[in-house]
Amino acid sequence: DVTEIEEEEAQAKQEEQIMKEQELSNLLHEKRYLKALGLAISLDRPHTVLMVVKAILKETDGRKHLEENIVRLRKDQKEAVLTFLVTWNTNSRNCHEAQAVIETLLRHEAPDSLLQYAGIKSAVESLLPYT
């Protein structure tokens, strides 16, 4: 019977999730935005990533800090943020944050580099009507 083993694994996953949530909360409180972005992306939490972006933009020189943090993300993390911001851009409450991230990506990534992103074609097609 593997029921007990499966229950232990599920509980371990749940405990790990809770630990990551607490770590994310601590990172936001400590204003360690790069790590918070990375963790929220790894947890596949678009709304949390949006909250981190909003927190960065509320800071003094928020655009500059946003640029610094987005530029330092890995390529796979930038791809994830790109897919998230397509959804953000469709909502008027979140479109400004989405546009700030798009602007940062367009300024700091070479066109050839952007073309290598997974899903870039569909992202651009989705962004155009709302941008």
TrEMBL record:
InterPro entries: Utp13_C (IPR013934). GO terms for molecular function: U3 snoRNA binding. Pfam families: Utp13. Keywords: Nucleus, Repeat, WD repeat. It is found in: Nucleus, Nucleolus. The keyword ATP-binding does not apply. GO terms for cellular component: 90S preribosome; small-subunit processome. Residues 21-131 form the U3 small nucleolar RNA-associated protein 13 C-terminal domain. Transmembrane segments: none annotated. It comes from the Eukaryota. GO terms for biological process: endonucleolytic cleavage in 5'-ETS of tricistronic rRNA transcript (SSU-rRNA, 5.8S rRNA, LSU-rRNA); endonucleolytic cleavage to generate mature 5'-end of SSU-rRNA from (SSU-rRNA, 5.8S rRNA, LSU-rRNA). PANTHER family: TRANSDUCIN BETA-LIKE 3, TRANSDUCIN BETA-LIKE PROTEIN 3. This is TBL3 protein. It comes from Podargus strigoides (Tawny frogmouth). The gene is Tbl3.
